[in-house]
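This part of the workshop introduces the protein records we will be handling. To make this concrete, we reproduce a full record directly below:
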Amino acid sequence: MKHLYLFPIFETHSNKLDEAYEVAEDFAAEFQGNEIWVPKFFQYDGASVPSAAYHIVGTPFNPRFMKAAVVHDWLYHTHELSRGQADKLFYKMLRESGVNKVTAILMREAVENFGGWYWDNDDDDVQYKKHLFEIITRDGRDPKKYGLKA
């Protein structure tokens, strides 16, 4: 599996993030023969793990969760896959990253049961995607590669 390069962000975009990492270079994941590209500049807040579950599951920035979480968050922004497919890919990537089966199932069940709150893009999400479209274009890349539309 390819490496994911991130760096911490001290002033996040206004997209509801208090603590975030930014993707330092494009990252690809494969799902059913198709590549999903997460662009450099995308900010995300790790896996959505409630603090009460840290001792059971792990913290949001557990290195084994990072790849699956960044792709999952990206897909919840772009809707390049259906929500069900995004959740399946999340589980698959957790397992490929060495997350044990029980923990991966718990995490998949959590996104399946509670992820609906985040699936629909609100105004902040729409503005964030426009911002990403602009900076990716300025960087000389095609935003369509990442599922972004003007």
